[in-house]
Structure formats: structure tokens, C-alpha cells
Design goal:
- By secondary structure, this protein is of the alpha/beta class.
- It has a single domain (2-273), classed as 3-Layer(aba) Sandwich (Rossmann fold).
- 38% of the residues lie in helices and 15% in strands.
- It is built from eight helices and nine strands.
- It has a seven-stranded mixed beta sheet with strand order 5-4-3-6-7-9-8, with helices on both faces. Strands 1-2 form a two-stranded antiparallel sheet.
- Helix 2 crosses helix 4, helix 4 (88-103) packs parallel to helix 5 and helix 7 (214-224) runs parallel beside helix 8.
- The longest helix has 20 residues, at 2-21.
- It is globular, with a radius of gyration of 21 Å.
- The protein starts with a helix and ends with a strand.
Amino acid sequence: MKKIIKKAKKILKLVSRRASIIDFSPVSFEGWKMATGTRTPWLGGGGNSVASSFSNCDARVATLIKERKLRLSQFSSEAVDAEVACLKWRHYIVYWSVTHAIRFTSSEAKNLVELGVCDGLTAWYASSAQYDNGAKGKFFLYDAWEGMRDDLLVADEKKSAGSYSYLDVENTRSNLRQCAQQNFIFIKGYLPQSLEIGPNPDCLAWLHIDLNSAMPTVAGLDFFWPRMLSGGIVLLDDFAWPGYEETQAAVEKWASENGQNILHLPTGQGLIFKKEN
């Protein structure tokens, strides 16, 4: 009996400890494998100029999706509104990072680069941030707009061969024609070969990588990092998501060899800030 009582006390003690850290506050955002009860940047339309501008951009995208003027082939037509809503934190980081890069780089040309464009949804937010900040510069968009090639995938990625074969560059062009800023340069082809034909920017303020494969990701970092302006930002998509461990390991190795730190975010994204030594 004494053993039973002693064991029961231990259980009650454990339960009481866990109960004390349970948070019963309402969830303010849920999506992309995360949930938070914190005050989101866009709460009430945004508490500062960046958050307010992002809110306006996000509302514009939501309207175009509702009106079926943006065709996002990566999502089912029945769930596209909900899918994009779940990406709000991701898109805020895209918008914020472009704004930061524009404000903290000194060159007049604030060129943006995206590797892995898909339907152009991320480019929508990035271009809007570029426009809202009155920045001059081009937006270079690199994608095969075809299925992933087996020879560009490491062993653990081979299962992804052929993925994204449904993409169409003309659909991406159509989506981005509705952006306020028409400065897009489309480079169709597989990385890293497409970097050999360009056109490529001489300098850039912001680089977004969403390739879901290690070799092209590192090739992109090697090519664009020397061209990155001091104060610029590299934003890595899917960086810490399950299933992309090979890419994360390759980028971590690259960062270590180049003396850089990566900020891991709860969304699974990663940030690298460029600062000259």
C-alpha cells in the first residue's frame, strides 16, 4: 500500500508540474506546422509601417485568389484560400526580409533573386516589398518550370525526381503581370547550368532559395554570395523542414566554411545576413 501511495504522489506531482506550464490563451496563428498565441506583427492591420504594408499586400493577394485571378497550381483549387492563409508567417518573413535588405544596402540597384519560383507566390510578396519601399532594381527569377532531374539530386532526394512537372512558366508570368512593379527577368533552366547563360545580376540585395535539393542550393550560394551587397539577406525556404535534411546539412556546411551564421526560424526558414568582414 505504501508503495502505491508513494507512486500516486509521484504521478500527481508530475501532473501538477505539467499543468503549470500549459498555456490556455487563444491561438493567434496556426499554420505551416506551427501555432502561436503571441501578438502577430499584422495584428489590427499592423503596428508599424512594415507590418501595415505587408497586411495590405496580403489582403491584395487574398482578393486575387478569391477572384481566381491568381492560379496557384501547387494547391488544389478547393483549398487554395486556406493553404495560402496558413503561409502568412512565411510570407511576412519574405516581405520583412526584402524590406530589411533594401533599407540596409547602399547600392542604388536593389536587385532581388529567387531560385525556385513555382507559380510566383513568393515573388508576389517580395516584389511588393520592393515596390512599397520605392526601390530600383530588377527581379531575377530562376526555375526549370519542369520536373526535378535525377542527376541533380543526392541519394536521399532521388524520390523527388519528376516533382513539379506540372509547373508552367507562362502561368507564372500571368500571375506576376498583376504586380505593381513589372521588373521581372525570367531565366528558365536547371541550376547550376542556367547560371552559365544568365542573364545574371552583377549585385543583389536579397536572395531567396526554394529548390528542395542540396546540390543546386549550394551552387546558388556559391554563385550569388560574392555578388551579395553588404547588408543583404539570404532567405532559405524549407530549411529545417522534415524531408530536406540533406539540403540543411549542405547549407550548414557551406555556412561554416564561409564564416556565416544561419538564423533558424520556427517556420522552418533560415536567414543569413551579409556583412563584410
